[in-house]
Amino acid sequence: MNFTLFASEPVAGYLFVAAIGAVVGSFLSMLVYRLPIILKRQWERDCREALALPATEAAETFNIAWPASHCPQCRAPLKIRDNIPLFGYLLLRGRCRHCQAPIPRQYILIEALTTVAALVSIAHFGPDLRGALAFLLTAALIALAFIDMREQILPDAITLPFLWLGLLVNRAGLYASLDSAVVGAAGAYLFLWLVFHVFRLITGKEGMGHGDFKLFALGGAWLGWPLLPLVLLFASLTGALYGGTLIITGRQARTTPMPFGPFLCAAIWLALFYGWPLTTFYLRSAHG
Ligand SMILES: [Zn+2]
Question: For FRET with 203, which of 144, 165, 255, 276 sits at 20 to 30 Å CA-CA?
Answer without folding.
Answer: 144
